[in-house]
Write a structure and sequence with these properties.
By secondary structure, the protein is α+β, with helices and mostly antiparallel strands. It contains nine helices and 13 strands. It has one domain: Sulfite Oxidase, Chain A, domain 2 (Alpha-Beta Complex). Helices cover 18% and strands 19% of the residues. The strands form two sheets. Strands 1, 4, 5, 8, 9, 10, 12 and 13 form an eight-stranded mixed beta sheet that branches. Bound molecules: the ligand Nc1nc2c(c(=O)[nH]1)N[C@H]1C(S)=C(S)[C@@H](COP(=O)(O)O)O[C@H]1N2 and molybdenum atom. The ligand Nc1nc2c(c(=O)[nH]1)N[C@H]1C(S)=C(S)[C@@H](COP(=O)(O)O)O[C@H]1N2 binds next to loops.
């Protein structure tokens, strides 16, 4: 599908009561909320705070959640090692400006169409070239491994970006638990296939021409890299469905389409697995998809990006894109002298 819908945008609706982006500093709001939660004697955020108290706190700071979906607070340790020092993208932007073509191709569609997506019960199967295949159920996802909060930049191939406080655990922890065999060279991921719940899987037009289920893949070395996260939450609570509930991948040095959502299968393989955007338009989207300002997309430049939620509506802040999205110190060695123009 040559003219797929990567640049079709829904009409931007903005309610009157919205604060201007420059009137709030998301980072300070997030920290302040933690202070209040402490002062209220509820312990650190992540302690068992009822959902309605959380919702109340969002109200207090003018960050009305768009989700009617129930998210619950998580218990986690902050991990400062990857801190970007940048302003966090406001919660309402993170949860209303989404790519999740199973729910439609416009940025607002996932927030509008995913609210009734059922995530419990859930089964995530880990199989293939592993010693101990296993199936994780919904409760396992947040209980089996210690959770960390990590703030990462997310750079979409469409040249916009965000800064998001994820909660999750390293994919490496899961791969160590199942034990990769000597044949394991790649890791394949698959999103849920449920056309009854995911209207984009029913209609070729609504689903942007992708052949579902959405699939992605990494080399084993990429999958084992310390940055590669399986995320189960953001802003201290479980993931809203539009962000890939109940579990999604986050690979911060690669274009966002690698960070596959709502995963039901992880398969360790001896061969490179097919990946959805590469199947749809192979000359535009490669298997590696490392963020690279020096290699333009055939139809637009990748040298800079629009930081969502900063600057005004028509003057969104543009910043330079960094090689590997700024994570070169952790990942450049994975690629040695590989020609990153050829392996895009
Ligand atoms: N299953 C699935 N995963 C997906 C997508 C998708 O359409 N379907 N879109 C990808 C793209 S293009 C991006 S930029 C990120 C966006 O994640 P966010 O909406 O949480 O910001 O999700 C990725 N994961
Ligand atoms: Mo993207």
């Amino acid at each position: 599908m040559a003219n797929h819908s990567r640049f079709t945008q829904g009409i931007l609706k903005k309610a009157q009561w919205h604060l201007q982006d420059n009137q709030v500093t998301p980072e300070s709001v997030f920290r302040a909320r933690r202070q209040i939660v402490k002062a209220m004697g509820l312990g650190a955020i992540g302690a068992s705070i009822p959902g309605y108290v959380q919702a109340g706190l969002f109200d207090l700071f003018g960050e009305q959640p768009k989700s009617s979906f129930i998210t619950t607070p998580l218990t986690f340790q902050p991990n400062q090692r990857y801190g970007t020092g940048e302003v966090l993208t406001p919660f309402d932007k993170v949860t209303t400006h989404n790519n999740f073509y199973e729910f439609g191709t416009s940025k607002q569609d996932p927030a509008d169409n995913a609210q009734h997506f059922k995530v419990d019960p859930w089964q995530l199967r880990i199989e293939g070239e592993v010693e101990r295949p296993m199936t994780l159920d919904f409760t396992d996802l947040t209980k089996l491994f210690p959770l960390e909060e990590r703030t990462y930049r997310l750079r979409c191939v469409e040249a916009w970006s965000m800064v998001i406080p994820w909660v999750g655990f390293p994919l490496a922890a899961l791969l160590k638990k199942v034990g990769v065999t000597h044949k394991g060279k790649y890791v394949a991921f698959e999103t849920a296939f449920d056309p009854e719940q995911m209207p984009g899987q029913k209609s070729r037009l609504m689903g942007g021409g992708i052949h579902y289920p959405y699939v992605e893949g990494l080399t084993l070395a990429e999958a084992m890299n310390e940055l590669t996260l399986l995320s189960v939450g953001l802003y201290g609570k479980t993931l809203p469905p539009q962000n890939g509930a109940p579990i999604r991948l986050v690979v911060p040095w690669k274009y966002g389409f690698k960070s596959i959502k709502s995963i039901v299968r992880i398969r360790v393989m001896d061969k490179q697995p097919p990946t959805s955007w590469n199947q749809l338009a192979p000359h535009e989207y490669g298997f590696y998809a490392n963020v690279n300002p020096a290699v333009d997309h055939p139809r637009w430049s990748q040298a800079s990006e629009r930081r969502i939620g900063e600057g005004g509506l028509f003057s969104a802040k543009r910043i330079d894109t960094q090689p590997f999205n700024g994570y070169g110190e952790f990942v450049a060695s994975l690629y040695g002298d590989m020609d990153l123009r050829k392996f895009y």
